[in-house]
Amino acid sequence: MSRCIDRRVGGVLALATLTVMISSARAEDGAPSAQPSPRLVDIYEYRVEGARTLPVEEVEAAVYPFLGPGKTSEDVEQARAALERTYAAKGFQTVAVSIPARQVKDGVVTLAVTEGTVGRLRVRGSHYYDIDAVKADAPSLTEGTVPDFNAVSRDIVALNQLPDRKVTP
Questions:
Q1: Which keywords appear in this protein's UniProt record, sorted alphabetically (predicted)?
Q2: Which pLDDT value is given to residue 75?
Q3: pTM of the full structure
Q4: How far apart are CA 15 and CA 23, in angstroms?
């Protein structure tokens, strides 16, 4: 009787081993895996909220490649990143783009742009120069505006042209 049990157990082990080998071979042959495929949606519009600094044409050009049928959540993330890169390329380093809701409704995806602005510009340590004049010579840092860091660099270089003045951000 123990031989009968041994044979059954041996047969079950052999069957289990054979099943594992077949599964491995299918996986190696490129058979579809058990992972679900990403959900495909049709995206016909990106509604971009809060974009005030860039022209509409540049915003549209950034997200346009990610429109169309059969898109995934990865495509939406790429559109978000592309818009953020467009801002950064223009010198707007204080801008963030987020996806408030990942659901596509009627083919429309919303992207929210947060443009960080200059809250307050302070000039410290100015003994010989008028503080308001120094601020006026740095228009890229006007309070309430989105700073263009390319323009900020130019303004600082211009402010430092006088040999007895040193301006640092």
A1: Signal
A2: 94
A3: 0.69
A4: 12
